[in-house]
Amino acid sequence: MAGIYIHIPFCKKKCYYCDFFTQIGLKYKEDFLRAILLELEQRKNYLESESVESIYFGGGTPSLLSSDEIKTILEIIYKNFNISEYPEITLEVNPDDITVQYLTNLKYTGINRISIGIQSFFDDDLVVMNRRHTAEQAHRSVEQILANGFTNLSGDLIYGLPNSDPCKWSKNLETFFDLKIPHLSAYHLSYEQNTVFSKLLKTGKLSLIDEENSLNQFSILCDESRKRGYEHYEISNFALPGFISLHNSAYWMQKSYLGIGPSAHSYNCVSRSWNISDFKKYLEGIFINQRNYQHEILSESDRYNEYIITSLRTHWGVNFQTIEENFGKMYSELCLNKSKKYIQNGNLMLNNNILNLTQEGKFISDKIIEDLFYMK
Ligand SMILES: C[S@@+](CC[C@H](N)C(=O)[O-])C[C@H]1O[C@@H](n2cnc3c(N)ncnc32)[C@H](O)[C@@H]1O
Ligand code: SF4
User: Rounded distance, CA 226 to CA 241, Å?
Assistant: First the structure.
């Protein structure tokens, strides 16, 4: 089983927290579309005829593409890859791109899952983040998507925002769940280098919320989603039964994926590679069939570390038998020894040879994961 990711690097304006590789405006859109069709053909053997079970248009803002453009990309994918009978095909959308006409047209493209970037249902938050939609638009677009046949819908929210508190976050979640969106991706705000938010933080114009406030918001997220019947299947992802994302799961279960477009990453269990994060150089390389990219071959310890990062984040957890079978006894003993202190203090739990994060552990998962690494 494998996945294909297509990076659409255009946005109408830059959100202040975002460091994804994007450019503002649609200049060079035609060249870009030509390039990704070429890259798909140039790399048609990367997945070695593995069955492709998920295709994901991410960004940037994929909803800046017309339905015809999406259809053309999917036709080339179907022509060059072995696509399973019922693939999950996701389109990331921004609320203000949604119209009934656009949704109607999308139905004929093959898109069968939508992921909408809501971020918050409060206008003051949306203004602080420099989002281009309003809370009312988010509401309306969710209702339109569900009413027009796209029942497999996911929404993104961000918590831990400046001036946020547990009460406001609870209201955001309540609105989200009342809209009956079956999949939630909820991310704690991170201050990424070279974003407007990180500059405002440095100059004291924004301040971090305190740790207790952050932790309370995370606890509310875990508790409220559970009460509403959502499975917390990955640190930031929650799904009603039947709505776990195939594409996200493939990443976490270390399946192969092909990433197309500038900055996109690919992985095939032996190596990972990433396309250049430079629009012009990406286009130039593809047009002369000399893709600009970097790659690294994964050593055994890299692959063990990779397994820990991806598995511990999910409810499937780290399986000691898998470690032993794939990497040997030395690695399973190392992992067990390193996890002992976290099992004792209640951040990890061990049942039937499977290691999982507890709710407290999920909040400090990055630190725990790093501690379980094999260090050279
Ligand atoms: C690829 S992004 C963009 C999707 C789409 N362009 C949009 O903005 O709605 C996917 C999601 O990552 C989250 N995200 C991006 N940067 C973040 C940050 N610095 N901190 C927390 N969440 C972030 C947002 O929730 C965003 O919707
Ligand atoms: S969050 Fe989405 S819309 Fe905003 S800049 Fe990033 S990719 Fe573009």
Answer: 12
